[in-house]
Amino acid sequence: MTDSVAASRQRVVGFADVVRIPLRRWRIVLTATAAVTLAVLAYLFFFPATYRATTVVVLRPVVTDPFTLPSSGADRAINMTAENGIALGNDVIDSTARILNRDPEAVRESLTTEVPTGGQVLRFQYAGDSERSAITGANTAAETYLRVREDIYKQQRAGLILSYDNTIKQVTGQRLAVQKALPNQKSSTDTASPRTQATLDQVSALNDQIAQLANARAKVSSADLSPGSITAAARSPIPSSHDAGLLYLLGAVLGGLLLGMVAAHAREALDRRVRSVDQAADLIGLPALGVVRAVGRHHDEAAAADARYVSLAVLKWIDRHPDRALVVLSGRNDEGRTTVTGNLAVALAEAGQDVTLAAPPESHEELKRVLFAAQKRTPPRPRTLSPSAPAGVNGSATAGRLGMGGTAATPAPGVTRIAGSGLRTADAPTQVQTTSADPEATLIMEAPVRQTPVVAAGPNTAGSGAADPDSRLLVVLIGGGVVRLCALGEEPDSGVVVIDAPPSDTDERGVRAAQTGVAVLVVARDRTRNGELTRLVDRLRSAGAQTVGFVLTGGRGA
To answer: Polar residues bias located where (predicted)?
Structure first.
């Protein structure tokens, strides 16, 4: 798989990531929750409460005889859509505004109506800034609607009665005209002529018509024009928008958490970082040397133990390629590189190696902390000196390298003399007595004429005995090995050399050192971006540097 394909491939988010991603990006979740909660608190404290009162009006059809059973469908004769339009019409709004002494537009915004499906009920809801204004507004709107609707019915009745009166007047005039055609006098014995009989029939029909019209007019006049009645007037107490404040806060917290989790997953999808060993191996194209857990308050020993397992893989490479520096590289300075380098040097020293640790000055304090903690954890073992010991194996040559390679004088029988500055310890500042095959043998450290000062130090001797600490060479005895801390660029050309290289994004010295040595990449889980790691690998390949593998650190804690 090529680097471009590996870098563009998106990792599948599993069920465990649904919980792990919000926990890792807890700042986003906390920020979203705090923002939503603060918004709800601002609404509760800075916005006045809104009181909402409701008045219920039951409508009924207008009938001429309210004491008789209505015909089929009379209870559904009211058009509720039209009634709702009248309730929110200008007549009701303007009358309510005059009574409440408010602006009509403000009343229109505060007044709403509800029409339940399949019923003849109107609910008037009025929102006010106080309980009294809300109750007054709802009741006034309902009463105004009933009055306006009754006025409409009265106008309709007046028009209908006027129509009946005109018709009755017209029929009465016709009857009077027909009556003029009748004879003035007639005897009781005379038989009416056919013409007279027809005139009499016409008059009788007109009388019947007038009676019917009068009867219909009477029914219209006696009709009850009340459009309905208020069955549930608004009264105290009424709900307000701040009554459920605690519920709003709970909803804000839950909603903020949900929104924060969505934002965390969105940020995770957009931020392509190394999440696992397999993903880093795909990007680098090399196997992992190990995983070093995050360094924290209680995890220093765990990180050191992980580094010891990494050193097992590195020792195989050191045996096959002696005298080549091991350069620990990372793209940035916050990926746990210095801690990994220090623990790796400590692990090699605990395995009996004579290690030179080179690092820039800004990393020395952290490396000293790692070395002194390792010295407490693994105290130096007594050195066994033998005149016939080969170079580099706890003999005179190893002791000579403690003094940076000066020329040693011929020792007397039973005494080994080593050129270099004196090895100073808290117990024997001028001489170190060690065991040997000869019980009388004594190791004596003598200072040469010109040499860089060396201090075999522990936590209690750091920085003592020199005016310029940067020019000193710190030597720490750990177990059966030695770690010498020096500045970057002052490391020897032979022996086991571990280099804590500066971040490659800002300094090229690490890549340059890897050209003659070998690089070990440090990748921080959940911190190293895919693009940054791919860029570092491309730089090493372009420079012709060899990479032996990578170490995955524990992420943000490293």
So the answer is: 428-437
Please give the Cα distance from 530 to 273 (Å, whole number).
Answer: 5
State the DSSP string of 376-414. Answer: HHSPPPPP-B-TTPPTTSSSHHHHHHTTTSPPPPPPPTT
Cα gap 111→127, rounded to integer Å: 7
205, exposed or middle or buried, with CB in 10 Å at 0-12, 13-18, 19+?
middle
**What's residue 254's pLDDT?**
94
Which phi and psi angles does 211 have, rounded to 5°? -65, -40
- Side by side, the strands of the sheet bearing 228-232 are 111-114, 121-128, 51-59, 228-232
Is 330:337 a contact under the CB 8 Å cutoff?
yes
- Residue 53 near residue 123, CB atoms below 8 Å: no
Mean pLDDT by runs of 10 across the 558 residues of the chain is 47 70 88 94 86 89 68 65 88 89 90 83 88 89 90 88 90 86 60 79 87 87 82 86 85 94 86 81 84 64 75 78 85 83 86 88 89 87 53 40 40 36 36 41 38 47 40 78 89 87 86 88 85 87 88 63
What is the rounded distance in angstroms from the CA atom of residue 491 to the CA atom of residue 428? 28
- Rounded distance between C-alpha atoms, residue 431 and residue 425, angstroms: 9
Residue 543 CA to residue 501 CA, distance in Å, equals 15
- Radius of gyration of the chain from its Cα atoms, rounded to whole angstroms: 52
Question: At how many degrees (to 10) do helices 194-222 and 131-179 cross?
Answer: 170
Distance CA 345, CA 307 (A): 9
Q: 278: which 2 tokens?
A: 């397999």
Tell me the whole-structure pTM to 2 decimals: 0.52
Distances, alpha carbon 312 to alpha carbons 228, 345, 348, 349, 350, in Å: 95, 12, 9, 12, 11
pLDDT of residue 14: 65
Spatial contact of 313 and 280, defined as CB atoms under 8 Å apart = no
Phi, psi of 549 (to 5 degrees): 160, -165
Q: What's the CA gap between 141 and 93, in Å, rounded?
A: 8
Q: Which sign does the torsion angle of CA 64, 67, 72, 76 carry?
A: positive
Cα–Cα distance, 433 to 437 (Å, whole number): 13
Distance CA 174, CA 206 (A): 8
* pLDDT in the model for residue 31: 94
In this predicted structure, what is the pLDDT of residue 320? 80
Q: Could you tell me the two tokens for 528?
A: 């190293």
d(CA 363, CA 345): 14
DSSP 124-190: EEEEESSHHHHHHHHHHHHHHHHHHHHHHHHHHHHHHHHHHHHHHHHHHHHHHHHHTTS-S---SSS
